[in-house]
Write a structure and sequence with these properties.
Layout lengths: L7 E4 L5 H9 L3 E4 L5 H7 L5 E4 L7 H5 L6 E4 L9 H6 L3 E4 L5 H17 L1 H9 L17 E5 L3 H11 L4 E5 L5 H6 L2 E3 L2 H4 L5 E4 L13 H6 L4 E5 L8 H10 L2 E6 L11 H4 L3 E3 L8 H19 L14 H11 L8 H6 L2
Parallel strand pairs: 1-2, 1-3, 3-4, 4-5, 6-7, 6-9, 7-8, 9-10, 10-11, 11-12
Helix pairs in contact: 1-13, 5-7
Bound molecules: nicotinamide-adenine-dinucleotide and 3-phosphoglyceric acid.
Nicotinamide-adenine-dinucleotide binds next to helix 5 and helix 7.
Enzyme class: oxidoreductase
GO molecular function: NAD binding; phosphoglycerate dehydrogenase activity
Protein name: phosphoglycerate dehydrogenase
Length: about 350
């Protein structure tokens, strides 16, 4: 690939210091500025060739349109739903992510929420802090022998499956791209969502947020589930419709929810978070030392590879790494024929 000149990079969120160090070692000037207001970003973005973000910076079309010199948007993490990939592609800006860097951390948090839901750990801990000793109220249920439905059998879905199988859970799942024989080799039986909903004691979602996954769990699909099903969302707010979830919790159709992500972050609407059967975290899936070190390092190395004209290999390992692979190739190779990556993916 022809080298791409990147002299200055803005890091707009808390990214591991290795990111800055690697970029600077390679002669790239780095500015770190957190909590920038949208107008500030619009005013300053023209000064940079590269932008490194996590999930909090909303890289909207108006920011991209003001980014006269931007060549790359690097997402130190997985989801790129906070980046207007379409607008970036039209402007010839490459969008890259580091999708495998936080897989294990997100999978481990998902398992922690599943276990916490089964044994009411956060509620019991809170009750103890309040001076109580309530052994009856927090009666739980074993995970052993229960059915876990995994919607989205990519990197994280696969890691969740193997961990929860070790607890004796039966794992079933659905994914429009991962072949059933592949997921079967990791012990996940694939089936249609219609078949999956009524069988699950627990459901966890691990899809990207895109039009086809918004509200995957809604009033209609909750009604198809077992009464008392427990759900976990460590993927993106909105994959489980929040208003439908409140209604399902109120009616008892949903017996509990473990949520790491929300439509609005931080959420202003408190009815979900305050519900006694909801346990929640402030988007902590990738918040481990290890995940942050990997993501910060990976994104810096990927940028340096581009500066040096190297082919992007990095974490690219399967068709599921669609943002890294396709955005890279479509902007570098098919610049004359920009395609909407999300549409392309959802029609695969
Ligand atoms: N909470 C966190 O901090 C955290 C951390 C890492 C990743 N995530 C999020 O987790 C999600 C999954 O990440 P990943 O690395 O496993 O991604 P991945 O690309 O490896 O897997 C996603 C899978 O979802 C499948 N999929 C797409 N549309 C679907 C649909 N309609 N129904 C069922 N499956 C569908 C894809 O085929 C793919 O296999 C992303 O949204 C990501 O942003 C959150
Ligand atoms: O998609 C991701 O990588 C996760 O949601 C993590 O987001 P964060 O980098 O803002 O923690």
């Amino acid at each position: 690939m022809a080298p791409i000149s990147i002299k200055s990079v803005l890091i707009s969120e808390s990214v591991d210091p290795r990111c800055r160090a690697i970029l600077e070692e390679n002669g790239i000037r780095v500015t770190e500025k957190q909590n920038m207001k949208k107008d500030e970003l619009i005013a300053e973005i023209k000064d940079y060739d590269g932008l490194v973000v996590r999930s909090a910076t909303k890289v909207t079309a108006d920011i991209i349109n003001a980014a006269d010199n931007l060549k790359i948007i690097g997402r130190a993490g997985t989801g790129v739903d906070n980046v207007d990939v379409d607008a970036a592609t039209k402007k010839g800006i490459i969008v890259m992510n580091t999708p495998s860097g936080n897989t294990i951390s997100a999978a481990e948090l998902t398992c922690a929420l599943l276990m916490s839901l089964s044994r009411n750990v956060p509620q019991a801990a809170m009750s103890m802090k309040q001076g109580n000793w309530d052994r009856k109220k927090f009666m739980g249920a074993e995970l052993f022998g229960k059915v876990l439905g995994i919607v989205g059998l990519g990197r994280i879905g696969k890691e969740v499956a193997s961990r929860m199988q070790s607890f004796g859970m039966r794992t079933i799942g659905y994914d429009p791209i991962t072949p059933p024989e592949v997921s079967a080799s990791w012990g996940v039986e694939q089936m249609s969502l219609e078949q999956l909903w009524p069988q699950c004691d627990y459901i966890t979602v691990h899809t990207p947020l895109m039009p086809s996954t918004v509200g995957l769990l809604n009033d209609e699909t909750f009604a198809k589930c077992k009464k008392g099903v427990k759900v976990v969302n460590c993927a993106r707010g909105g994959i489980i419709d929040e208003a439908a979830l409140v209604r399902a919790l109120e009616s008892g159709q949903c017996g509990g929810a473990g949520l790491d992500v929300f439509v609005e972050e931080p959420p202003k609407e408190r009815s979900l978070i305050n519900h006694p059967n909801v346990i929640s975290c402030p988007h902590l899936g990738a918040s481990t030392k290890e995940a942050q070190a990997r993501c910060g390092e990976d994104i810096a190395l990927q940028i340096v590879d581009m500066v040096q004209g190297k082919k992007l290999v990095g974490a690219v390992s399967s068709t599921q790494n669609y943002f890294s692979v396709l955005c890279y190739y479509k902007t570098c190779i098919s610049k004359d024929k920009p395609q909407n990556i999300i549409q392309l993916f959802s029609t695969c």
